[in-house]
Amino acid sequence: MCPANFLWLDFRRNLSTPGLFHLLLPGHDVRNLEHPCDATPYIQACPPYFLCFEFDFPNASDLAVLQQTKRQHPELPLLMITESHSESLAVWAFRSGVWDYLVKPLTAGDLNRRIETLADLCLERPPGDLRLPRHASMPCSVQLETPREISQGHKTLLARQFVESHFAESVRLSVVAMHCHMSESEFSRVFKKEHGHSFCEYLLKFRISKACESLADPSIQVKTVAFDVGFNDVSYFARTFRRYTGATPSSYQQVLAMKIPASFHSLQPAATLSNPI
């Protein structure tokens, strides 16, 4: 069990559904904070050994909190968990001082092992020394083409690969199910069991993430982005984008142009959808 106390900072957009916090084993000495603008008061009240930041697809203000926290408390290791598969976001995270970067989906076993590893490293530090041991170095490279938790045993991995190749096209559940050698009903059941959400949700999330990457270009038109990522209705794209990011595509594009460092061009929002587009 993890005897080191820590803070869990939940920056997910949809807090009505459980995040990864509920997967922590009983006995962890952890406080859960939802969308804190400043973690410093909580850190000062009961100094933690480390911090965990959970995101779905972070926006600029979310990441600003992480950066500010690291600047104010450089001695605290940060564990960042996100649903984004963006390599540029991972590079940004490590450059910002994140100790480790995890991509969802995560199993309870994977999450608790990582928490306990970090806790053990923190507890190994001599009294008064707030640095991690030297062997706790950050990865020098990041591979995010597919989540590290997906193994060859996952029956629906082919579906994710299909979306990566065909997300800009009309993606039909029947075609993807056949690609995975299953009936539609079996595929839907297995995909949700393996990934924690429906295939339709995953498809829309992937498309929105690609849209955010494109919107990092200040010269591209929103209409072009919508069509490029598989939407055939610009108004629906704009409504969906705003619903899950809190901003219109145009304003999001402007924020990226004004506030996001050149080294980071891939802020990606969460989204849901009941039927494929």
Number of strands: 5
The helix-strand sequence is EEHEHEHEHHHHHHHH
* Shape call: globular
Reported CATH architecture of the largest domain: 3-Layer(aba) Sandwich
Give the C-level CATH assignment of the largest domain.
Answer: Alpha Beta
Major sheet summary line: 5 strands, parallel
- The name of the CATH superfamily of the largest domain reads Response regulator
The class by helix and strand makeup works out as alpha/beta
Number of helices: 11
Mean pLDDT: 79
In total, the number of domains comes to 2
Percent range of helical residues: 40-55%
Question: Which value, in Å, is the CA radius of gyration?
Answer: 19 Å
The stretches of 5 or more residues where confidence is low (pLDDT under 50) are 133-153, 260-277
Strand content: 5-15%
Q: Give the CA-CA distance, first to last residue.
A: 45 Å
| CATH topology (fold) name of the largest domain | Rossmann fold
Strand order of the largest sheet: 2-1-3-4-5
Question: Mind explaining what this structure looks like?
Answer:
The protein has 277 residues and is an alpha/beta fold. The protein folds into two domains: 118 residues, Rossmann fold, CATH 3.40.50; 103 residues, Arc Repressor Mutant, subunit A. Helices cover 43% and strands 9% of the residues. A five-stranded parallel beta sheet has the order 2-1-3-4-5, with helices on both faces. The radius of gyration is 19 Å and the shape is globular.
Keywords:
Arc Repressor Mutant, subunit A, globular, 277 residues, Rossmann fold, alpha/beta, 2 domains
